Amino acid sequence: MHVDPVGADLELEPGETIIEAAWRLGYHWPTTCYGQATCTVCHLEVLAGDEHLTPADEEERHALENRLPGADRRDLARLRLACRARATGDVTVRKKGVRRQETVPIPPAGPL
Length: 112
Fold this sequence. Notes:
Ubiquitin-like (UB roll); two-stranded antiparallel ribbon; 3 helices
């Protein structure tokens, strides 16, 4: 799957959610509930390939309908939670804030 605007290409393992794949591949994906479908911070916009996403479960639909400020019914058709959605084929999504994580070296202990 492809994530804009960062331009990331993610290969999802079978059964893996989008956010799990991003984390495994070293990408930061915004969230505050870390996969509980309660914050909706991980929501994304599906640009293409929605037929290759697993259907939204009741928890995801409830979260999108009740916890996503500013979304109206026509928006909900193309919005998904990265902590719930699984891709089974080619999908292109948009999510601001996704970025490659930088590793920060731990400084050596003791005097330099």
